Amino acid sequence: MAQKSESEAHPDPETEGPTPVAPESLSAEAAAAELERLAGIINTANDAYHQDDAPVMSDASFDALKARNAAIEARFPDLKRADSPSEQVGAAPAEGFGKVRHAVRMLSLANAFDAEDITDFDGRIRRYLNLSEDAALAYTSEPKIDGLSLSLRYESGRLVQAATRGDGSEGENVTANARTIADIPHHISDAPEVLEVRGEVYMSHADFEALNARQAERGGKTFANPRNAAAGSLRQLDAEITRARPLCFFAYAWGEVSEPLADTQWGAIERLAEMGFRTNPLTRRCDGPQALIGHYAEIEQQRATLDYDIDGVVYKVDDLALQGRLGFRSTTPRWAIAHKFPAELAWTRLDAIDIQVGRTGALSPVARLSPVTVGGVVVSNATLHNEDYIAGLDNNGAPIREGRDIRIGDWVQVYRAGDVIPKIKDVDLARRPEDSAAYSFPETCPECGSDAIREPGDSVRRCSGGMACPAQAIEKLKHFVGRTAFDIDGLGAKQIEMFFTAGEITSPAEIFTLEARNVDLKLQERDGFGETSVAKLFAAINERRTIPLERFLFALGIRHVGQTTARTLAATYLTLDALLAALKAAVADPEGEAYAELEGIDGIGPTVVRELLEFMAEAHNRTVLDDLLAQLREVEPFDAPAQDSPVAGKTVVFTGTLEAMTRDEAKARAESLGARVSGSVSKKTDILVAGPGAGSKAKKAAELGITTLTEQEWLELIGGG
Q1: 3-state class (DSSP) for residue 633
Q2: How far apart are the C-alpha atoms of 168 and 457, rounded to whole Å?
Q3: 3 state DSSP class of 718
Q4: 144 is catalytic
Q5: Angle in degrees, CA 235, 240, 241, rounded to 5
Q6: Nearest Cα to 582, choosing from 571, 595, 564, 569?
Q7: Backbone torsions φ then ψ of 65, nearest 5 degrees
Q8: Which DSSP category does 104 fall into?
Q9: Where does 64-131 show beta strands of DSSP type E?
Q10: Integer Cα distance of 667 and 199 in angstroms
Q11: Rounded to whole angstroms, what are the CA distances from 218 to 143, 213, 221, 623?
Q12: Between 3.40.718.10, 3.30.565.10, 3.40.50.10190, 3.40.50.2000, what CATH number should domain 651-718 receive?
């Protein structure tokens, strides 16, 4: 089997893995720094996996990284970033295909790694639904295919469109390619008028080996594993190449439907099979968590004998009405979870330690390793997290690895279960060279020579050079043009590096003056450019002179303001002018109403507020912002999904004890109807829902004349009474 090499990887230091310190031992500052790095890691990994079909980490690595992120977010909910792994699905569609907007988002799954996680999953569902421990609750259990997610849209029984998952909201149009797959019917009978069938495209082991043998004979590209081969084959611009490659498809879910397929998950899967779709024969219906764990063990034993790759088992609540009540988090359904298989380890030599600098000035150590195969992937880089981790300490000075430090020349154990660049788990002191010396972490920035300062409570040492540091400046620009920010076709990381090095783009505004300056720059005469490519680049830049508010906010690269936080701010203030006015007022009066309203936004904590206000208070940032806005046509107001409900667009606060539903379910229901849920009462609050035990919030609502409803009145208002 061909192997993917990581020897050429140059990790962005902001995508280095988290410190190994347990979440409960982290300070708020250390947790924020880790979440920032984790966000970058997931973005890099998602692009490599979903766009390039060339993953730089195993699924176990990706899963463990997301699990650590979730654990930190659970302990520090106010630090949650929008570009956190918990808020992202897949990656933006690649260039070369038409884009398809999914009628129903294609979400990812939360992960579990042991039996205790499954028991907790069952417990969370019961608490959310107010079900007792002995109440009947059935699930379905099915192998998790390691392939490429695909959505098939049928209208009047005819296949009209096929799309990859992409970033969950928008995927690639691969209709012509999907029509070449034998498992995908072009016509189905006894189906709803509109039916989106979802499943996984994969390649069998036998077909994969045969394909790689043919590719090698022709001198063509060989693939690292069947998943890469399947993804690369489905995403060919020439459908005839796809036709020549043996792809398979398992159906296991659905998106938009004009009428329900069944009352249960099990019944819906049976219905899909009756329509002619291939469904996995190992799928079972299980009563309770112990039955799920038992089925997991059965599938794990069969894993090596299957002719396709699986990386775990997926559990779903069987009752579709309960699925509807449980609903969704931002990127995952509450009613499903993936129970993943464990990862792998390997030993190799640490040849060098490099220090890299990211867009927030973080100095991140990277281990350069003698290449070693871990889980079918050749690894030559690993994260060393920070100086404490190298020294064998956690952030509080307590020993990890029994106090064993890491030195150049050591034999180290590499663990692909937490980072896009795998991490070092342990050190073999018996093989340590006699002349080895403890590693001395730099106290000055290797890029600009500025002091590298570690603030009290922070796990990361940061360059104090700010935008004067070229590493920080260039990484901020790369972030600005990234796919989840301005997403300018033809202007990626490599182009930013070229323009920045030449001094031609040093701030976001200069991107939009590039065309006017081309009289002197003459880009069309440079290597790698031409009249057509330059024209396309300028067209792409001009297209982004109009951008949605949430993308604009995320693109600014304000620390701790990721995609979810940016969207929350956009949904709260609706326009950039309103947000900037609120921020300026909060800067001017930290004790005033604008500051209190900021802190009261559900999901916006004091750390985010501090970063926002520090950004606005810095004169250089205001200049950068003003220059950028002068080049844009419009920052579009937040476009909330149209809602035909009496609470759409209203701000709701829940207080006291809710009896008919849990607080989580109440919040999710309100948001699904277009309401904004806040954690505090202010003049902008429209409705207070007060259960028994309501205290200061009810009193303040009465003082402000805010409509106050009982839980039953609220349910009657939204049609749930």
Answers
A1: coil
A2: 37
A3: helix
A4: yes
A5: 55
A6: 595
A7: -65, -45
A8: S
A9: 99-101, 111-112
A10: 30
A11: 35, 9, 9, 56
A12: 3.40.50.10190
Residue ranges of alpha helices (H) inside 311-460 are 320-326, 387-391
Q: Which of 258, 18, 130 is nearest to 657 (CA)?
A: 130
Distance (Å, whole) CA 447 – CA 470: 7
Dist. CA 64–CA 81, nearest whole Å = 18
Active-site hit among 66, 80, 144, 425: 144
Query: Please, are residues 36 and 82 in contact by the beta-carbon 8 Å criterion?
Result: no
Structure tokens that stand for 475 in this block: 């990484």
Nearest Cα to Cα of residue 243 among 181, 154, 188? 181
Pairing between strand 423-427 and 411-415? antiparallel
The residue among 57, 91, 375, 53 whose CA lies nearest residue 221 is 53
**SS3 for 159?**
strand
Report the C-alpha gap between 92 and 581 in whole angstroms.
32
**Which residue's structure tokens are 């899963």?**
63
- The superfamily CATH assigns to domain 4-85+344-431 is Nucleic acid-binding proteins (2.40.50.140)
- Summarize the confidence of residues 684-694 as an average pLDDT: 88
Rounded Cα distance between 721 and 712, Å, is: 6
Of 4, 16, 98, 105, give the one whose Cα is nearest residue 52: 4
459 — alpha (psi -120 to 50), left (phi > 0) or beta?
Answer: alpha
C-alpha to C-alpha distances, 60 to 63, 107, 323, 345, nearest whole angstrom: 5, 19, 27, 11
Residue 636 half-sphere exposure, CB side, CA atoms within 13 Å?
A: 12
Q: Are strands 546-548 and 634-636 parallel, antiparallel or unpaired?
A: parallel
C-beta separation of 42 from 14 below 8 A: no
137/181 Cα distance (integer angstroms): 37
Check pLDDT > 80 for residue 596: yes
DSSP SS3 for 26:
coil
CATH: 3.10.20.90, 3.40.50.2300, 3.30.420.10, 1.10.150.20. Which one for 548-636? 1.10.150.20
- % the chain with pLDDT above 90: 46
> What is the gyration radius of the CA atoms in the chain, in angstroms?
26
Residue written as token pair 């398992």 = 250
**Residue pair 635/629 in contact by the 8 Å Cβ criterion:** yes
Query: Tokens representing 643?
Result: 């809602």
| Residue matched to tokens 């024209």 | 535
Q: What is the pLDDT of residues 634-671, one digit of tens each?
A: 999 987 655 678 888 888 999 988 888 888 788 888 88
d(CA 442, CA 357): 12
Q: What is the pLDDT of residue 91?
A: 45
Residues 6+ apart with CB under 8 A from 572: 579, 601, 676
Q: How many CA atoms lie within 13 A of 73 on its CB side?
A: 22
Q: List pLDDT tens digits, range 242-273.
A: 888 899 999 999 999 999 999 999 999 999 99
Burial of 563 (0-12, 13-18, 19+ CB in 10 A): buried
Quickly list H helices, 169-264. 175-178, 205-218, 226-234, 239-243
CB atoms within 10 A of CB 361: 27
**The one-letter amino acid at 692:** P
Provide the 3-class DSSP secondary structure of residue 464: coil
Among 55, 135, 483, residue whose Cα is nearest residue 322: 135
Sheet holding 158-164, edge to edge: 158-164, 148-155, 194-202, 248-257
Tokens of 436: 């080895």
- Domain covering 99-330 in this structure, CATH number: 3.30.470.30
**pTM, two decimal places:** 0.55
pLDDT tens column, 315-343: 999 999 999 999 988 778 999 999 988 77
Q: Tell me the two tokens of residue 175.
A: 């209709």
